[in-house]
Each structure stands twice: as C-alpha cells, then as structure tokens.
C-alpha cells in the first residue's frame, strides 16, 4: 500500500517537472536558442567571429585598420572576452508582432579598470613621444599593442549587468537586434569609460606626466627639456653641457603629490619636487673661477685659455654636483571636456628644470 502511494506521488512530481518544462512555447524556445547562439559567438576562439558579432568601434576605431593592425585587434578581442559568460533568465515573445525579449545577465570584463589603465598608458606614451628624436606619430597599431599588453599582463576581473535583449522574427527563426546600448554592455561600456573626461583624476594626470619624466634617461631629457638650446655655443661644447645637465636631472629628479583640490572644471594639485641645486652649482663655479683667476696660469693662458678653463670648470661643477633642492608648487589643471590638462607655467618649469635657464644664463657671458 505504501509502495503504491509512493509511486503515485513520484508520478505526480515527475508530471509537474514535465509540465514546467513544457511551459515555454516552441517559439520561446527558438528565441532563447537564438540568443544563446549569438552570445556564444563572443566566447569563440575565433576572433573574427567575435568581431562579426558586435560593433568593433565600441573598442577601437576601424578608420586606420591595416593588415598588421587586424592581427593585433584579433588578439585583443580574444583576450577581452576570455571570461565572458551569460545567463538567460526569461524569454517572452509576441507572435503577432514578431518581437521578443530575453532578460539576460551578462558577465563582462571590468572595463572601467581597463579603460583607466589604458588611458594612463596612452598619456604616458604621449609624454614619451615628446622625448623621441624621430618624432614618430602614435598610430592605431600602437594603441592596439598597448591595449593588448594590458590585457595580457593584468587580470581585470569581471562585472555583471542585466539587460533586455530585443529580438525580431524573420521567417521561422528569431534574430537578436544589436542596438548600440547592447553592444556597449557587451564590451562592459568600455567606450563610455574612455570618453569620460573625469575617468582620470587631476592627481593621476600629474603623476603620469612626472612619473614618465622621472624614468627618462639623460638623452630623453635633453630632447624633452630642449637642453641643447640653453646656450649659443659651438655644437661640441653645447652637447657636453646638455649631457651633463641631463645626467644631473636624471639622477636627482623626484616628486611627491601631497594634495588635490577640485572645483567644477578647475583643479589644483600640490606637489613637492626635488631637482638639482643649480644655485649650488653656480656658487661652486664662481668660487673655483675666482680662485683660478688669482693664479699666474690664468694670466699666461690668455683669452683663449681663459675661455677653455671657464668651460671646463662649469662642466666639472655640473658633473660633480650632488646637491639637490626641493620646492613645493601648485599645479593648475582645467578640464576641457576630454581630459584634465596641465597648465604649464614658470613655477613648474623652474621646479622641474632646477631653474637651469637662469643659472646657465648667469654664466653664459663668461663661457661664450
């Protein structure tokens, strides 16, 4: 008797499962399968399949595509969607109108963090190019390489969002409607983050600039700071002077961001900057020159000998200097609707360059 009741109860339960499973109409099941097939393309190992599925301009503009760029972009998409997943929660269709909706949970890369790192990398690259003797322009392929490197070297994790995916019926099948909002969600809103003029804070902008300068070698500093234009002398001596100053800055330059204030489109960032003490260099030079001028050698060497000695003394004072000076300055920035821009002024130049122009200018009449 108990066995019979158990069989009856089990039959009722199983019948319930079958009934529930059969709740979705054939059309709804077809619509669901269309969404599954479309989103599974983003999980494909074939990058071209991914690019054919969404609007590629949501990541990178295609206006400069080349064969070389296409390969890099292919790798980017494969990396971008390596952790992509989805869950279709509910599908509804309107047979008369031939429309449908699929409530879907999307798991995409944390595009906000990626966009921030990418923007910083682009900014650092821009500063680097200002110290490039070749004056090479930054291309789309360069952008691809930067983005690919970030995706390869970092794990950005994922974020989830829920959306209604629209469908329309074409004949006996259903097709996903790719709206701009859907394609944006499928990229984690990467393009939206990239177009946010406040994605990077003023302090992050300043840090990107000064951090890149700090990593420059002496040759990059010569180009970036135009050190070879400090004095109007023959090329050989000018090069030696620029090299000595560049090496000094390379060894000594440092900075610390100590504060930030924002108001509307204006911002102030407080920075403590350490640079070579060129006043100390000038003082040492004048002291040594004064002592040498008292010697009989200075009289016997004549004008040409005096000129060469003065140059030699100046170079040695720069090369041997170990003194540094720190100065607190306020860097002003404004937001132009694209990003925060540093307003370069004499305070920044003096703090970063170590007041080179005035120090060298004080000596230039002696060495020319």
UniProtKB/TrEMBL annotation:
Recorded superkingdom: Bacteria
Protein name per UniProt: DUF5105 domain-containing protein
């Amino acid at each position: 008797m108990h066995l019979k009741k158990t069989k009856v109860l089990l039959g009722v339960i199983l019948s319930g499962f079958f009934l529930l499973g059969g709740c979705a109409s054939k059309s709804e099941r077809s619509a669901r399968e269309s969404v599954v097939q479309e989103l599974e393309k983003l999980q494909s190992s074939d990058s071209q399949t991914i690019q054919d599925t969404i609007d590629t301009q949501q990541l990178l503009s295609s206006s400069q595509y080349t064969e070389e760029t296409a390969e890099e972009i292919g790798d980017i998409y494969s990396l971008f969607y390596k952790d992509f997943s989805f869950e279709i929660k509910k599908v509804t269709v309107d047979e008369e109108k031939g429309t449908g909706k699929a409530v879907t949970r999307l798991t995409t890369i944390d595009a906000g963090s990626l966009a921030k790192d990418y923007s910083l990398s682009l900014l650092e690259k821009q500063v680097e190019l200002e110290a490039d003797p070749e004056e090479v322009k930054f291309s789309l392929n360069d952008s691809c390489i930067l983005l690919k490197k970030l995706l390869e070297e970092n794990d950005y994790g994922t974020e989830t969002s829920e959306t209604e995916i629209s469908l329309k019926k074409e004949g006996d099948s259903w097709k996903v409607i790719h709206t701009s909002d859907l394609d944006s969600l499928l990229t984690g809103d990467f393009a939206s983050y990239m177009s946010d003029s406040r994605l990077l804070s003023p302090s992050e902008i300043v840090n990107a600039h000064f951090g890149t300068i700090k990593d420059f070698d002496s040759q990059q500093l010569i180009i970036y700071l135009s050190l070879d234009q400090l004095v109007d002398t023959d090329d050989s001596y000018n090069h030696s002077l620029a090299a000595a100053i560049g090496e000094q800055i390379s060894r000594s330059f440092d900075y610390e961001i100590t504060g930030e204030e924002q108001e509307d489109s204006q911002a102030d960032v407080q920075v403590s900057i350490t640079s070579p003490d060129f006043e100390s260099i000038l003082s040492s030079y004048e002291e040594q020159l004064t002592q040498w001028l008292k010697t009989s050698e200075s009289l016997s060497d004549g004008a040409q000998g005096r000129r060469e000695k003065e140059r030699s003394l100046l170079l040695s004072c720069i090369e041997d200097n170990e003194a540094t000076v720190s100065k607190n300055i306020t860097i002003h920035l404004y937001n132009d609707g694209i990003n925060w821009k540093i307003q370069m002024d004499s305070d920044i130049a003096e703090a970063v360059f170590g007041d080179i122009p005035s120090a060298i200018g004080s000596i230039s009449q002696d060495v020319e």
